[in-house]
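Entry type: protein chain
Record version: 2
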Amino acid sequence: MPSEPGKSDVDSANGRDHNGRTRFMRMLRLRLVVPLLRARHDPEYTARGVFIGVAFGLTPTVGIQIPMVMVAWAAVRAIAPKWNFNMIVAIAWVWLSNVFTLGPLYYGFLVTGRLMMGHHDAVPGYQTFSKELSNALSVDAGGLEGFWDQTVNLFELYGVPMLIGCVPWALIWGWIGYKWTLVYLHRRRRRAAEKRALRGTAPEAAETGE
Protein backbone atom coordinates (compact mmCIF):
# COMPACT_ATOMS: atom_id res chain seq x y z
CA MET A 1 0.00 0.00 0.00
CA PRO A 2 1.55 3.32 -1.02
CA SER A 3 2.32 5.76 1.75
CA GLU A 4 0.35 8.94 2.11
CA PRO A 5 1.82 11.95 0.29
CA GLY A 6 4.22 13.79 2.52
CA LYS A 7 3.94 11.25 5.34
CA SER A 8 7.52 10.03 4.94
CA ASP A 9 8.75 13.62 5.12
CA VAL A 10 6.79 14.23 8.32
CA ASP A 11 8.05 10.99 9.86
CA SER A 12 11.60 11.92 8.88
CA ALA A 13 11.24 15.37 10.45
CA ASN A 14 9.76 13.88 13.61
CA GLY A 15 12.65 11.43 13.76
CA ARG A 16 15.17 14.23 13.43
CA ASP A 17 13.42 16.23 16.16
CA HIS A 18 13.36 13.18 18.43
CA ASN A 19 17.03 12.46 17.80
CA GLY A 20 17.88 16.11 18.38
CA ARG A 21 16.03 16.17 21.70
CA THR A 22 17.69 12.91 22.73
CA ARG A 23 21.15 14.25 21.95
CA PHE A 24 20.39 17.50 23.75
CA MET A 25 19.15 15.69 26.89
CA ARG A 26 22.21 13.42 26.81
CA MET A 27 24.44 16.48 26.51
CA LEU A 28 22.63 18.13 29.44
CA ARG A 29 23.24 15.09 31.60
CA LEU A 30 26.88 14.91 30.54
CA ARG A 31 27.56 18.58 31.23
CA LEU A 32 25.37 19.21 34.28
CA VAL A 33 24.66 15.99 36.17
CA VAL A 34 27.86 14.00 35.64
CA PRO A 35 30.04 16.66 37.38
CA LEU A 36 27.75 16.32 40.41
CA LEU A 37 28.13 12.54 40.46
CA ARG A 38 31.90 12.79 40.23
CA ALA A 39 32.18 15.31 43.07
CA ARG A 40 33.78 13.83 46.19
CA HIS A 41 33.24 16.78 48.51
CA ASP A 42 30.46 17.52 50.97
CA PRO A 43 27.05 18.10 49.35
CA GLU A 44 27.03 21.70 50.61
CA TYR A 45 30.33 22.42 48.87
CA THR A 46 28.99 21.06 45.59
CA ALA A 47 25.59 22.73 46.04
CA ARG A 48 27.26 26.12 46.45
CA GLY A 49 29.02 25.46 43.15
CA VAL A 50 25.66 24.83 41.49
CA PHE A 51 24.28 28.06 42.97
CA ILE A 52 27.19 30.09 41.60
CA GLY A 53 27.07 28.37 38.22
CA VAL A 54 23.32 28.82 37.77
CA ALA A 55 23.46 32.42 39.02
CA PHE A 56 26.21 33.41 36.59
CA GLY A 57 24.68 31.31 33.83
CA LEU A 58 21.44 33.27 34.10
CA THR A 59 23.06 36.61 33.35
CA PRO A 60 23.57 38.32 29.95
CA THR A 61 27.32 37.75 30.11
CA VAL A 62 27.87 34.84 27.73
CA GLY A 63 31.54 34.76 26.77
CA ILE A 64 32.91 35.93 30.12
CA GLN A 65 30.95 33.72 32.54
CA ILE A 66 33.77 31.24 33.14
CA PRO A 67 36.30 33.98 34.00
CA MET A 68 33.66 35.52 36.29
CA VAL A 69 33.25 32.20 38.10
CA MET A 70 37.01 31.86 38.50
CA VAL A 71 37.31 35.38 39.90
CA ALA A 72 34.43 34.71 42.32
CA TRP A 73 36.06 31.43 43.41
CA ALA A 74 39.39 33.16 44.10
CA ALA A 75 37.66 36.00 45.98
CA VAL A 76 35.62 33.63 48.16
CA ARG A 77 38.69 31.55 49.01
CA ALA A 78 40.54 34.70 50.05
CA ILE A 79 37.74 36.52 51.88
CA ALA A 80 35.34 33.87 53.19
CA PRO A 81 36.88 30.37 52.93
CA LYS A 82 33.97 28.73 54.73
CA TRP A 83 31.76 29.65 51.76
CA ASN A 84 34.13 28.09 49.25
CA PHE A 85 32.45 26.20 46.41
CA ASN A 86 33.22 23.58 43.78
CA MET A 87 34.58 25.63 40.87
CA ILE A 88 34.42 22.71 38.39
CA VAL A 89 30.72 22.22 39.09
CA ALA A 90 30.09 25.96 38.89
CA ILE A 91 31.79 26.18 35.49
CA ALA A 92 29.73 23.22 34.29
CA TRP A 93 26.44 24.84 35.27
CA VAL A 94 27.08 28.17 33.51
CA TRP A 95 26.42 26.07 30.41
CA LEU A 96 22.73 26.78 31.05
CA SER A 97 23.43 29.71 28.74
CA ASN A 98 24.19 28.05 25.43
CA VAL A 99 23.41 28.35 21.74
CA PHE A 100 19.98 26.74 22.27
CA THR A 101 18.86 28.85 25.24
CA LEU A 102 20.59 32.18 24.64
CA GLY A 103 17.77 33.92 22.76
CA PRO A 104 14.88 32.91 25.07
CA LEU A 105 16.93 33.65 28.20
CA TYR A 106 18.00 37.09 27.07
CA TYR A 107 14.48 37.93 25.99
CA GLY A 108 13.15 36.78 29.37
CA PHE A 109 15.69 39.04 31.09
CA LEU A 110 14.63 41.94 28.90
CA VAL A 111 10.90 41.50 29.51
CA THR A 112 11.44 41.07 33.26
CA GLY A 113 13.67 44.15 33.40
CA ARG A 114 11.23 46.32 31.47
CA LEU A 115 8.38 45.22 33.74
CA MET A 116 10.47 45.88 36.86
CA MET A 117 11.27 49.36 35.54
CA GLY A 118 7.60 50.06 34.83
CA HIS A 119 8.06 50.19 31.06
CA HIS A 120 5.23 47.81 30.23
CA ASP A 121 4.67 49.30 26.78
CA ALA A 122 8.33 49.20 25.73
CA VAL A 123 8.75 45.45 25.29
CA PRO A 124 9.76 44.46 21.73
CA GLY A 125 8.44 41.36 20.02
CA TYR A 126 10.55 38.25 20.29
CA GLN A 127 11.20 38.12 16.55
CA THR A 128 12.52 41.69 16.54
CA PHE A 129 14.71 41.03 19.56
CA SER A 130 15.96 37.72 18.17
CA LYS A 131 16.96 39.34 14.89
CA GLU A 132 18.87 42.15 16.62
CA LEU A 133 20.53 39.68 18.97
CA SER A 134 21.60 37.50 16.05
CA ASN A 135 23.05 40.52 14.28
CA ALA A 136 24.92 41.62 17.39
CA LEU A 137 26.42 38.18 17.92
CA SER A 138 27.31 37.61 14.27
CA VAL A 139 31.06 38.06 13.82
CA ASP A 140 30.57 38.20 10.04
CA ALA A 141 28.37 41.29 10.21
CA GLY A 142 30.68 44.06 9.00
CA GLY A 143 33.85 42.62 10.51
CA LEU A 144 35.09 43.04 14.07
CA GLU A 145 34.33 46.76 14.17
CA GLY A 146 30.79 46.17 12.93
CA PHE A 147 30.31 43.40 15.48
CA TRP A 148 31.48 45.71 18.28
CA ASP A 149 29.20 48.50 17.09
CA GLN A 150 26.20 46.16 16.95
CA THR A 151 26.95 44.80 20.41
CA VAL A 152 27.19 48.31 21.80
CA ASN A 153 23.93 49.24 20.09
CA LEU A 154 22.21 46.17 21.49
CA PHE A 155 23.25 47.00 25.04
CA GLU A 156 22.34 50.64 24.56
CA LEU A 157 18.86 49.47 23.60
CA TYR A 158 18.45 46.55 26.00
CA GLY A 159 21.47 46.41 28.32
CA VAL A 160 20.12 48.04 31.48
CA PRO A 161 16.74 46.23 31.45
CA MET A 162 18.49 42.93 30.75
CA LEU A 163 20.96 43.41 33.61
CA ILE A 164 18.15 44.35 35.99
CA GLY A 165 15.82 41.63 34.76
CA CYS A 166 18.37 38.84 35.15
CA VAL A 167 18.74 39.40 38.90
CA PRO A 168 15.54 37.64 40.08
CA TRP A 169 16.12 34.80 37.60
CA ALA A 170 19.71 34.31 38.78
CA LEU A 171 18.91 34.43 42.50
CA ILE A 172 15.71 32.35 42.44
CA TRP A 173 16.99 29.62 40.14
CA GLY A 174 20.40 29.64 41.81
CA TRP A 175 18.67 28.95 45.14
CA ILE A 176 16.49 26.25 43.56
CA GLY A 177 19.61 24.64 42.10
CA TYR A 178 21.31 24.78 45.50
CA LYS A 179 18.40 23.10 47.31
CA TRP A 180 17.86 20.51 44.57
CA THR A 181 21.55 19.58 44.65
CA LEU A 182 21.49 19.11 48.43
CA VAL A 183 18.43 16.88 48.26
CA TYR A 184 19.77 14.93 45.29
CA LEU A 185 23.24 14.30 46.71
CA HIS A 186 22.04 13.48 50.24
CA ARG A 187 19.50 11.01 48.84
CA ARG A 188 22.06 9.43 46.53
CA ARG A 189 24.64 9.04 49.28
CA ARG A 190 22.04 7.65 51.69
CA ARG A 191 21.02 5.02 49.15
CA ALA A 192 24.66 4.14 48.50
CA ALA A 193 25.21 3.72 52.27
CA GLU A 194 22.13 1.52 52.53
CA LYS A 195 23.37 -0.70 49.70
CA ARG A 196 26.78 -1.04 51.35
CA ALA A 197 25.08 -1.94 54.62
CA LEU A 198 22.98 -4.60 52.90
CA ARG A 199 26.03 -6.10 51.22
CA GLY A 200 27.80 -6.14 54.56
CA THR A 201 24.97 -7.94 56.36
CA ALA A 202 24.32 -10.49 53.60
CA PRO A 203 27.23 -12.83 54.49
CA GLU A 204 26.35 -12.64 58.18
CA ALA A 205 22.76 -13.56 57.44
CA ALA A 206 23.88 -16.53 55.36
CA GLU A 207 26.10 -17.83 58.16
CA THR A 208 23.27 -17.71 60.72
CA GLY A 209 20.83 -19.34 58.33
CA GLU A 210 18.45 -16.37 58.33
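Comment: Residues 143-208 form the longest helix (66 residues).
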